[in-house]
Specification:
about 45% helix; 5-stranded parallel β-sheet; alpha/beta; two-stranded antiparallel sheet; 9 strands
């Protein structure tokens, strides 16, 4: 990474941190997901800053932002759009839904039915939507941040594996530490007018630079050992998919880039694995307190 790229990354993070206090690690992870052209799932309790992080990122990145509040009566057409008959022109016209944006916040995604959730599948994988046999491309970049409430809450649906696998990364924000929470209480972040950190061209360049981060043969061996073990160990209901393998590879590149390196290290793989595997892997036994990533890394003696 050159000095100019490093300054641009730090500029983005610094501006976001004027609103999101004490969560630099999660800000970096969210930015890495965007630079890797993935999608982000934030799974946490209400009121910890999930929506605020999404809105702040969209504003700082200068992206066209839209928000969909997922509810039990939300329909796929509310997300994608509909064809309606224009009596003036005697023809059908497509009215775009909220998904036609650059930065989509799918708020409380698990309050909608699986049928409605599935409206996002094509968009998240192919950056396009199909309505009545016609394909409509989405804007570039296209980034989805979904927030998810705990499944134990009343009125929530469990996200199907096909939906979960579309998210490159999942994490929880958690409560802020005492000092950060005090800063929040003393500040008035709702009234902050954040400036766009970079131009669209500069953002596109950063995304392009991420793809050039080097993956050595030994790191590829690490990645493939992890994927293979998740599939063959019998510890999980199903192993990591090829999409998950690509997600792990790409997020490691983006994270290394944010740290100022042009190569991926073993530490990057260990650091990113929990956020890629946590929402994808379910243990076949509940007798262990270890997370899926801990089970894999301990079994492979990756330390």
């Amino acid at each position: 990474m050159n000095i100019h790229d490093s300054k641009n990354i730090e500029k983005i993070i610094t501006i976001i941190e004027t609103v999101i206090h004490g969560k630099r690690d999660k800000v970096e992870l969210a930015l890495a997901t965007f630079l890797a052209k993935g999608h982000l799932l934030i799974d946490d309790l209400p009121g910890v800053g999930k929506t605020t992080l999404a809105k702040t990122m969209a504003q700082v990145l200068g992206l066209h932002y839209s928000r969909i509040q997922f509810t039990s009566d939300l329909l796929p057409s509310d997300i994608l759009g509909i064809n309606y008959y224009d009596t003036n022109n005697a023809t059908f016209v497509f009215k775009k839904g909220a998904i036609f944006s650059q930065f989509l916040l799918a708020d409380e995604i698990n309050r909608a039915s699986p049928k409605t959730q599935s409206a996002l599948l094509e968009a998240m994988e192919e950056a396009q939507v199909s309505v009545d046999g016609t394909t409509h491309p989405l804007a570039e970049p296209f980034f989805v941040v979904a927030t998810k409430n705990p499944f134990e809450e009343v009125g929530t649906f469990e996200l199907p594996s096909s939906q979960l696998d579309r998210f490159m990364v999942s994490f929880s924000l958690g409560y802020p530490d005492a000092a950060s929470e005090r800063d929040i209480l003393l500040s008035n972040t709702k009234k902050l007018l954040l400036k766009q950190a970079l131009s669209y061209e500069e953002i596109a360049k950063l995304q392009e630079e991420v793809t050039k981060v080097y993956l050595s043969e030994s790191i590829l061996d690490y990645l493939q050992d992890i994927i293979r073990y998740s599939r063959e160990s019998g510890l999980f209901q199903s192993g990591l998919s090829t999409r998950a393998a690509l997600a792990l590879s790409n997020i490691c590149k983006a994270y290394a880039f944010i740290q100022g390196r042009d190569y991926v290290s073993p530490e990057d793989v260990k650091m990113m694995l929990p956020f890629v595997s946590g929402h994808r892997l379910k243990c076949t036994s509940h007798t262990t307190n270890e997370s899926p990533s801990e089970l894999i890394l301990n079994a492979l003696h990756i330390d």
